[in-house]
Amino acid sequence: MILVVEDDPILKNLLGHTFSGKYQVFFASNGAEALEVLKKHTPSLILLDLMMPDMDGFTFMEQVQAQPELANQHVPIIVVSNLGQEKDIERAKSLGARAYLVKAEVSVEEIIAKIQEVLSAAPGVASAAS
């Protein structure tokens, strides 16, 4: 299962269509919704935007780290954001992001390849289709 945390409806639709049949996907439009999903499900991976209303991606990652029951799930996070400055990348990685992709510089195919790479490298992670 992949949790996609993204507020752009066009990108959500594109990712949903792309992942259809490959992965079970849950969607959240902001960090607060994503936290609620994490309390009920343990995804194999989180695809996370940073700039969202209500709770941004940085705050989401801080909240996950602050809650032992969520932090102990050790779910890999791939950030996919329009923020491309080095300070944003470093901050996201310091908060636990395994990979960082800049939306303007990456294709959907590259996102899928990064998902497969991170899932195959994550110890003890169940199949993404689960």
Helices and strands in order:
Blueprint: E1 2-5, H1 9-19, E2 25-28, H2 31-40, E3 45-48, H3 57-66, H4 68-71, E4 77-81, H5 86-94, E5 97-102, H6 108-121
Parallel strand pairs: 1-2, 1-3, 3-4, 4-5
Helix pairs in contact: 2-3
Give the CA-CA distance, first to last residue: 6 Å
Uncertain parts: 125-130
Strands ordered across the widest β-sheet: 2-1-3-4-5
Mean pLDDT: 90
Question: Could you name the key traits of this structure?
Answer:
alpha/beta; 18% strand; 5-stranded parallel sheet; 130 residues; 45% helix; Rossmann fold; disordered C terminus
Brief overview:
By secondary structure, this protein is an alpha/beta fold. It is 45% helix and 18% strand.
Question: What does this 3D model show about the protein?
Answer:
The chain is α/β, with parallel strands linked by helices and 130 residues long. It has helices at residues 9-19, 31-40, 57-66, 68-71, 86-94, 108-121, and strands at 2-5, 25-28, 45-48, 77-81, 97-102. The protein starts with a strand and ends in a 9-residue tail after the last helix. The chain has a single domain (2-121), classed as Rossmann fold (3-Layer(aba) Sandwich). Mean pLDDT is 90; it is low at 125-130. The protein contains 6 helices and 5 strands. Helix 5 (86-94) links the parallel strand 4 and strand 5 (97-102). Helix 2 packs parallel to helix 3 (57-66).
